[in-house]
Design brief:
Distance between the termini: 35 Å
Structural class: mainly alpha
Helix content: 55-70%
Shape: elongated
Length: 579
């Protein structure tokens, strides 16, 4: 139901926008036609006035009265061409530029008449008016009358009411025909220089525009109603969920009532025991713990510590493990350098390396093979120590189950490297990185599994997926599946950005990670590097999509909320990344 309502909202929003676009185009068309009609009326009127003035001036020149067709455009063009040609010559004015004979008497007088006629401002103004009419005629031919209507709103415009049997679509078609005819009529007026009456070219679109705006209002009201009901539904669901959560809490408390009672009873007993313990003399116990420490922290343990420190490439640190202190029956093992506390001398990274060496020395002699769990053990360590620690933990995983959580890319890459490349004295691989999670694995050696905790949304994290499955294909299949259901644009945008990252690694870098991210430089695939030859157009397109997904998708902003990426754009990006 939620998905259907979301689709209805999108459809109504789209149709409302298309109605608005349609009447905006009608308004623009009317404004364009009204404007050119007004200017054409003025231009033709001016043309006729200037033409009459030019003819009057011509009649005033007595010498030119006997020239045949002197009012024609051909004659006017003839004398203008003669003047232009004469301006190129250098000989005396009394020579005819055409026949090259001397001009005498009447012939000379006619030439002077031509010059007087062309010098007249009435003729110049007439020429200017002619140019204006010509330009308007060209502008008119470039005006497009046809307006395309989206097929999505044609059914709505084709509806008929009881009062008027004509649908809005029919009225629209009639208006377009009327505008076309008036455009042709205006063209004829400009060509023949006939007077133009503005009322003859009036276009009646106000009624249709009003009806279209009414439809837009109707759509917007429906949209408002849908969104309001959806908001009310969400509030109701929220209220019901709160009630359910409260009932679930009561259900859990009811089931664990006896456990809770026992907890408070145990707390009371523990309080009594703590009081009794505080009154006991701990000196004999402290003496006994000190004796046990001397026996446990043996020379063998110290040697193991030094060995682990050396493997972590910190053997240059002269760390001592003196006899620990015992207070109130509790033993503490201290580490120092020539009587000084480590914190006063070593950096944070060196302190962490010493602590890891001590820890590794302890578990190396521990007969108990309980699982080992580490949470980001590489903070403040340099990359050499990180790689050594990764190798050491893979070795330990042969004897006990080892679980490691990390956000450190370099540490993760080192673990993956040693999981696939660690070998024994017989040069046989001791571990392998499992890819067949569900079907099992028959490979020899210890199994190493790699998982990733995926962010579901901005506020939700916790979906566990196989790290080895990650690829551009994996994300594309995931996105296409998500788009079939109730998705959020931000989650799709985030997954598409991950797809682009893997696309770059697979298609452009030939599965090469950046060299600076490698813990072991021997992993560089040199033959693949030779094949790198990226298409600049592909790079530009990837950047365009990346910027779009960042500004209007994965990053929460006013732009992403008010102008989210549409489904069509997501589909376009997916199709590009599939190539």
């Amino acid at each position: 139901e939620k998905e259907n309502k979301s689709s209805d909202i999108k459809l109504i929003e789209s149709n409302s926008q298309k109605i608005k676009t349609l009447y905006a185009k009608l308004e623009t068309l009317k404004k364009t036609i009204d404007d050119i009609v007004l200017r054409s009326q003025s231009a033709v009127s001016t043309y006729l006035t200037k033409e009459e003035a030019a003819k009057l001036r011509l009649s005033e020149l007595e010498i030119l009265k006997n020239i045949p067709e002197r009012n024609s455009q051909e004659w006017l063009q003839f004398i203008k061409s003669g003047k232009a040609y004469k301006s190129l010559l250098t000989e005396e004015a009394e020579i005819c530029p055409y026949c090259r004979q001397d001009l005498k008497n009447d012939a000379l007088a006619i030439v002077h008449g031509y010059a007087s006629f062309l010098a007249n401002s009435a003729q110049t103004e007439f020429d200017t008016a002619s140019t204006v009419v010509k330009n308007l005629l060209q502008e008119l031919t470039q005006i497009t009358v046809q307006i395309e209507i989206s097929t999505d709103i044609i059914p709505k415009l084709s509806e008929k009411n009881e009062e008027d049997q004509k649908s809005l679509k029919e009225i629209f078609d009639e208006i377009i025909v009327d505008v076309t005819e008036k455009k042709d009529s205006l063209k004829t007026c400009l060509e023949k220089k006939t007077k133009i009456k503005i009322e003859d070219f009036s276009i009646e679109v106000e009624g249709l525009i009003t009806e279209l705006k009414n439809i837009e209002t109707e759509f917007n009201e429906s949209l408002k109603s849908l969104k309001s009901s959806d908001s009310e539904r969400q509030e109701a669901v929220k209220g019901i969920n709160e009630i359910i959560a409260d009932l679930e809490d009561k259900k859990v408390i009811s089931k664990k009532k006896d456990i809770i009672k026992k907890y408070f009873k145990d707390e009371e007993i523990m309080g009594t025991m703590d009081y009794v313990a505080s009154t006991i003399n701990t000196t004999p116990l402290s003496v006994l713990c000190g004796k046990a420490t001397d026996e446990l922290v043996t020379e063998d343990f110290r040697n193991n510590f030094i060995k682990e420190l050396k493997e972590l490439e910190k053997e240059h640190l002269p760390v001592e493990i003196p006899k620990g202190s015992v207070r109130k029956g509790k033993n503490k093992t201290r580490k120092q350098i020539k009587g000084h506390e480590l914190k006063a001398i070593l950096s944070e990274g060196e302190q962490k390396a010493v602590a890891l060496a001590l820890f590794l020395a302890e578990i190396s002699k521990d007969a108990n093979s309980s699982p080992l769990i580490l949470d980001d053990p590489v903070n403040s360590l340099d990359h050499q120590v990180i790689d050594v620690l990764a190798k050491k933990l893979i070795q330990i995983s042969s004897e006990r189950q080892t679980i490691i959580f990390t956000h450190n890319k370099l540490f993760y890459d080192s673990l993956v490297h040693w999981a696939s490349n660690l070998k024994n004295e017989q040069n046989q691989r001791t571990h392998h990185l499992c890819k067949n999670y569900n079907g099992g694995c028959n490979a020899n050696g210890s199994h190493v599994y790699s998982f990733k905790i995926e962010r579901i949304s901005l506020l939700e994290t916790g979906k566990v997926i196989s790290k080895s499955q990650e690829s551009s294909k994996f994300y594309l299949e995931k996105i296409e599946k998500d788009l079939q259901g109730d998705y959020t644009p931000s989650s799709i945008a985030s997954d598409l950005k991950s797809t682009i990252e893997y696309y770059i690694d697979e298609k452009i870098l030939n599965n090469q990670r950046l060299i600076k991210d490698y813990g072991n430089k021997q992993s560089i695939k040199w033959d693949q590097l030779k094949k790198l030859n990226p298409d600049e157009m592909v790079i530009d397109k990837l950047k365009e999509y990346w910027d779009l997904l960042s500004s209007r998708g994965s990053h929460l902003s006013a732009n992403s909320m008010e102008n989210p990426i549409p489904l069509e754009k997501f589909t376009e990006i997916i199709d590009f990344l599939k190539k």
